[in-house]
Amino acid sequence: MRKRAAERIVHIALELACGVLIGFTLGLIGGGGSILAVPLMVYVVGVENAHVAIGTSAMAVAVNALAGLVSHARAGTVKWKCAGIFAPCGVAGAFIGAAFGKAVNGEKLLLCFALLMVVVGVLMLRGRRNKGEAGAACNRQNMPRVMMAGAGTGVLSGFFGIGGGFLIVPALIACTRMPILNAVGTSLVAVAALGASTALSYMLSGYVDWVMGLLFVAGGVIGSFLGTRAAKRLSGSGPALTTFFACVIFTVAAYMIWKSLAAL
């Protein structure tokens, strides 16, 4: 009995710690929370069903993104017009992506997810020195690109059960040339919307573990606060932060590919 209680305490501590890491990453760079959430749930917490890990992580990331958004909104780093255009297009794409994602074998889905991580890591390294333009915003000229980027990101978000911040940040920078700190703050609107729509789709299919999700959220709120404060202090060290996070992505992706291939 005591052994089970001790194991449960360790399990809860792991879920809270993972939540803090996810929230911190979201607050720091506006993405990466969901790209880490799924492997953390599967390989650290021990969730056996990949679809449950995806659905639960989507719910937790959505709430954690809202926590980070509050801090960024207070700091004035959110481009609300861009968020209002990007997010609805992303939500529409997310429902389409989620419908396809649930029909794919869990292990194959994790393998595809890992391969996507590698691609994103390479793209992050290539654009790590892009500082952006301080006055950049959404306008008539770039609106079609913003809408298409939102829809495309939404499809990937729904398919893989991710908030998509690690895709949204570079997409916003590419479409509008806004600075990374503005892209981080703006992306959290879309991350919350995409995560919520993906979680709703998985929830309707019974793929959300609410107890585990709430523990991830509790840890994530703390992490989001810490990450946002760190983002303000380290905003001038964008290339170094991007390089570090890309290395984390490559490491996690390599582990996921190895585990997925071994299970096939």
TrEMBL record:
Topological type in the membrane: Multi-pass membrane protein
Keywords assigned by UniProt, alphabetized: Cell membrane, Membrane, Transmembrane, Transmembrane helix
Transmembrane region(s): 12-38, 50-70, 108-125, 146-174, 180-200, 207-226, 238-258
Transmembrane found in the keyword field: yes
Compartments where located: Cell membrane; Membrane
Pfam families tied to this protein: TauE (PF01925)
Highest rank taxon of the organism: Bacteria
Family to which this protein belongs: Belongs to the 4-toluene sulfonate uptake permease (TSUP) (TC 2.A.102) family.
Protein's recorded name: Probable membrane transporter protein
Organism encoding this protein: Gluconobacter cadivus
